[in-house]
Design a protein that fits this description.
Layout lengths: L2 H8 L2 E3 L8 E2 L9 E4 L16 E5 L10 E5 L2 H12 L15 E2 L4 E2 L4 E2 L4 E2 L4 E2 L4 E2 L4 E2 L4 E2 L4 E2 L4 E2 L4 E2 L4 E2 L4 E4 L4 E3 L5 E3 L5 E4 L4 E2 L4 E3 L5 E4 L4 E2 L4 E2 L4 E2 L4 E2 L4 E2 L4 E2 L4 E2 L4 E2 L4 E2 L4 E2 L4 E2 L9 E3 L4 E2 H34 L1
Parallel strand pairs: 2-3, 3-4, 4-5, 6-9, 7-10, 8-11, 9-12, 10-13, 11-14, 12-15, 13-16, 14-17, 15-18, 16-21, 17-22, 18-23, 21-24, 22-25, 23-26, 24-27, 25-28, 26-29, 27-30, 28-31, 29-32, 30-33, 31-34, 32-35, 34-36
Antiparallel strand pairs: 1-5, 19-20, 36-37
């Protein structure tokens, strides 16, 4: 593909040969002649002087003394690279057309047009499958569950009874949607009585969920993942949780029961939320933070365990780093006082 065509697709301005042919895509530090790469993170700017790529997608204000490389200047180089990647290297079909002979489709299920179903798919009674759905090998759709049109469900995903998956949803391998919430009532004899988990999980349109996640059904009502949310691998979402629109949650995070996370939040890896709290819209939470109370002010950033507002957290971290020196100085002062006291 010519540079001019790539530039048209990604909306970039070209410095250099617009007729240059590009044959591949590579990381800036590993690309070879004929490849195109991108530069969006300042940490990688050092590679701009040595990369063997023939073309680079760069910020609009990027400067370099090299004249042997074509620059495609884009407002958002990372997003531009994503568009180029999709056009130049489209992914293979995740599920082959048709329905595998080993798949089971209940005669009581409602099946839309153009279903793709891999080996040992199981669609149970009263399930509703929309048009253009792709179910990979070993997917189970429980009684009364629904999967909206254009959704892609990867291997070994289980969707329990009555749970609802919206349109254009992607769920990766090993994830379980609708397992029982962790609800047990303590009894006088020290044992626990299981609380019936009678609700469902509702996943709205355009959500993507990573592999090996657990999204528990509500005790009553719904556990809800709202439109456009993105959830990484190995995330636990407990009963009656709400994850707001366009919120992103990184791997190994855990959200306890009945917590509500707002819209457009960014949650780092290994973040833990206690139950029954609310997180305001546009909140950012740093990795490995522990959130033990509600965050009520929108647009704030938190970090630490227990989490604090980011500026306060940085001051605390700085103070902790000074403790060894402070302790040493205190010990020296105590020694001097003891010495002076003994001399008197």
């Amino acid at each position: 593909m010519r540079v001019s065509e790539i530039a048209r697709i990604i909306g970039a301005k070209v410095d250099g040969d617009v007729d240059l042919e590009i044959s591949g895509i590579g990381k800036i530090e590993e690309a070879k002649s004929g490849d195109i790469s991108f530069l969006a993170n300042p940490k990688y700017e050092r590679y701009a002087a040595t990369t063997r790529a023939s073309a680079l997608i760069v910020p609009e204000d990027f400067r370099t003394e090299r004249r042997d490389i074509v620059l495609l200047r884009a407002k958002d180089p990372y997003m531009a690279f994503v568009f180029a990647l999709k056009r130049m290297m489209p992914p293979p079909d995740p599920v082959k057309p048709g329905i595998h002979p080993s798949a089971y489709l209940s005669p009581k299920a409602s099946i839309g047009k153009n279903l793709r179903a891999g080996a040992f798919v199981c669609i149970n009674d009263n399930a509703v499958i929309g048009d253009d759905v792709m179910l990979s090998d070993n997917v189970v759709v429980g009684d009364g569950a629904a999967v909206g049109e254009g959704s892609l469900i990867y291997p070994n995903v289980t969707i329990y009874r009555n749970c609802r998956i919206g349109k254009r949803v992607t769920i990766h391998g090993g994830t379980v949607v609708g397992s029982d919430g962790f609800g047990f009532a303590p009894k006088e004899d020290g044992t626990f009585e299981k609380i019936p988990q009678l609700g469902i999980v509702e996943i709205e349109d355009d959500v993507e969920i990573g592999s090996n996640c657990s999204i528990d059904r509500a005790t009553l009502g719904e556990t809800r993942i709202c439109r456009g949310a993105k959830i990484d691998n190995l995330v636990q979402v407990a009963h009656n949780v709400v994850v707001g629109e366009n919120t992103v949650i990184a791997a190994q995070s855990g959200i306890s029961g009945s917590t509500k996370i707002g819209k457009n939040c960014m949650i780092g890896g290994q973040v833990g939320f206690v139950g029954h709290i609310e997180i305001a819209d546009n909140t950012s939470v740093g990795a490995q933070s522990g959130i033990r109370k509600s965050i009520k002010e929108p647009g704030t950033a938190y970090f630490g365990s227990p989490a604090r507002e980011i500026h306060e957290a940085k001051r605390v971290e700085a103070a902790v780093g000074m403790l060894p020196k402070v302790i040493q100085e205190l010990s020296a002062l105590q020694h001097q006082i003891k010495k002076l006291t003994n001399e008197e």
